Amino acid sequence: MSIEDNIKRVRDEIADIAISLGRSPSEIRLVAASKTRNADEVRQAICAGVDAVGENRVQEMLQKNEQGAYSGSPLHFIGTLQSNKVRQVVGVCDLIESVDSLTLIEKISLKATSLGIVQDILIEINIGAEPQKSGILPDSLDEIIEIASNFHGIRVCGLMAIPPIYEKNERNCYYFDAMLKLFVDIRAKKYDNNSVQFLSMGMSDSYADAIRAGSNMVRIGTAIFGTR
Questions:
Q1: Could you give the number of structural domains in the chain?
Q2: Which range marks the domain in which residue 40 is found?
Q3: pTM (2 decimals)?
């Protein structure tokens, strides 16, 4: 199937799930996770109507950006962002989804302030407390958000997570439900530099469960582009 066909199929499934929950399909943002995909494939996904393109690697993102791959679409950074790469991402990406430390928040703030812009970010949560994964532990979120509210040049727009994957859906849904609770709690609190609206969770093998749990942003690669 073509990229266009795949996106239509994913959109149809998202719509079916949303409607069954009494939600509007339009509130679910579809991000095409385009790691290792070339500029032409990215353009096809944009033409087929994805809401944004997400990149995992800074160098790959810069190369495709030079080729005009993202024209007509918001660009998200969804991979682990190293501190020394912040200057290459801030002001280039519309949304940095994977902000996982106070150090990164400070560096993003400094760069954005120097550019005279406000950089939108999501706080990445290590919801499964997995030592091999990046992200802030759930118990630290309130403190992180409060400290982040004191920095200029950033706007916290929500939360992102890559939960553990289990063969049994019940276990996966436990983590999705835990993320929704964090999202609802943070959204109810009033901080400066805070416009919490996005809960980004769910990928090709889990987006249906994530949407049922409350996600309104899914990052989908294989189901759009096919197997790498």
A1: 1
A2: 3-225
A3: 0.95
